[in-house]
Amino acid sequence: MWPDDLIEFDGNCQFDMLPNCATLILPRANSCRQRHLFQFAKYSIFEMAGPNVLVILAEGAEEMETVISVDVLRRASAKVTVAGLSGNGEVTCSRQVVIKPDCSLEEALKQRPFKAVLLPGGLKGAEHLASSELVGRILKEQEDQGRIIAAICAAPTALKKHGIGKGKKITSYPSTKSVMDADSIYQYLEDRVVVDGNIITSRGPGTAFEFALTVAKQLGLGDKVPELKKGMLLQ
User: Fold this and answer.
1) How confident is the model over 103-145, as pLDDT tens digits?
2) Which one of 18, 24, 45, 120 is most buried, by most CB atoms within 10 A?
3) DSSP codes joined into one string, 86-114
4) Quick count: other Cβ atoms within 10 Å of Cβ 162?
């Protein structure tokens, strides 16, 4: 389920050396120009046979919410595609962690339909998701077809901007409550994870594991959750 080895490269590595999977880049402590690059997994995501999940990655996304969601869902055997909103190049997240997506969002759409579309948070990332017409079309199609839409932290503000999930129970990062609670479009809750029909929302980095495990359950992978929690030492 998870690779036995973690492969390390220096700052001069070539991305074409890697299999077709998303990568996470962390700056070395002694130099921002030298980097460690880690694989999420050593097998191609396109070889996985589980439910199809799209994670849309925008500049300024919250890195914990992104990586934890991808990691947990892949451990649960979901086929997760990390798609770059602005293309297939490296994406700098909210705390300067750099992630290279699997492909661009346009390329990822060739794999639809997706059983779930997941939006990581991060204030800047959420702003980019909210301002994207393509994201709006993807979410609208997902909603019209009754498939899962999951958003964490500030990302529920993108749902509101695109008119998704009106009347649903939702939650979000506390600082965005006033935005989500305005106009009485939603029933705002302060639970750590909220599920209402096909809409799943959560609060922030500290709720990312619960969020991802809830998405796994809603994808029909609930039987894997106890073993996943045991393996990750989650209470």
Assistant:
1) 999 999 999 999 999 999 999 999 999 999 999 999 999 999 9
2) 120
3) T-SS-EE-TTS-EEE-SEEHHHHGGG---
4) 21
pLDDT grade for 218, boundaries at 50, 70 and 90: very high
Residues 6+ apart with CB under 8 A from 88: 100, 101, 102, 103, 104, 107
The model's pTM = 0.82
Residue found by looking up tokens 């750099």 in the block: 98
Give the whole-angstrom CA distance, residue 165 versus residue 160: 8
C-alpha to C-alpha distance for 54 and 66, rounded to whole angstroms: 11
Amino acid in the structure at residue 165:
G
Check: CB of residue 118 under 8 Å from CB of residue 86.
Answer: no
E-strand spans in the chain?
23-28, 31-39, 52-57, 79-84, 91-92, 98-100, 103-104, 116-119, 148-152, 169-170, 187-188, 193-196, 199-202
